[in-house]
Amino acid sequence: MAFSTPPATFQDILATGIADQAFTKFLQDTPPPEYDNDITIFKKAIEASLPARQQTFASTRPETIIEREHIIPVDDSFQSRVIICQPIESSGPTPLVVLYHGGGHCLGFPEFELDLARQLVTKLSVTVVLPSYKLAPEHPFPGGINSAWEVLKYLAAESQRPHDPKKPLFTQDTNPKLGFIVGGTSAGAELASVLAHLARDNQLSPPLTGQFLSCGSYISPDKVPFKYQPLYLSWEQNKNAPVLDRKFMDVVSKARAQDPDSPLAYSFDQHHPEDGPGEVKQGHLGLPPAFFQVCGLDPTRDDNLIYERVCGRNAEFRLGCICIQDGRIVFGHRIQIWR
C-alpha cells in the first residue's frame, strides 16, 4: 500500500512498518546475509559482483537508450566514473538528472541506480548521470560529500560549454535549464539533500530545479527536536528491520567516521539565525522542490516524514511524498546488495 499523503497520526505512522504476508514470505525465502562487523569484507564481495552485473546490464539495455562511461577528475586521489544514460532519439532538448547510488557511504557503484535511470530515460526522455563518489573507510567523512559536490559542479559547468563532438560529455540535446534534478537512494539521497543546500549557498549555475530523495537519513538520532520526538518512532520500531537494520547502520557509520556536528552530516540540521528553539525551517528556504519516497520498514523512515513535514510548510519546496507500506519497492537497491 502506498500513501500519496504522508501518514500523520501515531497509528498511521506505525502501520507503515507492518509487512504484509507476501513480503514476509519473500523475506523468508530470500533471507539477507549476516553482516560482518568488518565492512571491508562485505565491500570486497560487492565489488567482486560488479563484472557480472555489468554483463547483465549490457545484455538487457533497451534499444532506445544509449549509455556511455566517462571519467571526471575530482582530485589527485580520486576520479569519478560516471554512466550517462539518454535516449538515442529525442523530440527536443532533455532535462538533466543526476542520481547518486546508495550503500551506506561505504559500498556500491553507479550501476545500483541504472534500472531507475533507464526507466526515467524511457518514460520521461531525460538525460541521467550516475556518478561514483569517494567511499569510506578509505575516504572518511566528508570525503564522499565533497567528491559528490565536485562532480555536480563539473556537470553543471560542462552542460554550459559549447558542444564538442570530439569530447562529448553531453549531447547537444541536454539542457539543464529545462530541468536540473539531483537525487539518489538511501545514502545517495542523503548526499543529494546536502548537495541541494550547497548548490543554493554557492549559487550553482545553472541552478537545481528539483530533488528526488528516496529513503535517506536526514536527522541525527541524538538531535531530534523536542517537538518532533513523539513522531520519531521508526528508529526503535524498525531497529531489527530486514534488509537494513541498525546493526548494519552502526557498522557503516563507524566506517564513515561522520562528524555529527558538521552541517554536511545531516541536511535537516541546517540552522538559521531566525529559527527559534527546535525550529529548522529557515535553514531550508530557497531549496528546489523535493519529492520524497519513504519506506515503512526503514529505521530512518521518520527522518523522511519529519523532514518532509518541516520543509512542506514552504509551498515552494514541497513537490510530493509517497510512503510505501513495508517498502518492498524502495528496498530494491538494497536487495541487489545481497543477491
Automatic annotation (TrEMBL):
It holds the Pfam family Abhydrolase_3. The keyword Hydrolase applies. It comes from the Eukaryota. Transmembrane segments: none annotated. InterPro entries: AB_hydrolase_3, AB_hydrolase_fold, Carboxylest/Gibb_receptor. GO terms for molecular function: hydrolase activity. Keywords: Hydrolase. SUPFAM superfamilies: alpha/beta-Hydrolases (SSF53474). Residues 97-309 form the Alpha/beta hydrolase fold-3 domain. PANTHER family: AB HYDROLASE SUPERFAMILY PROTEIN B1A11.02, ARYLACETAMIDE DEACETYLASE. This is Alpha/beta-hydrolase.
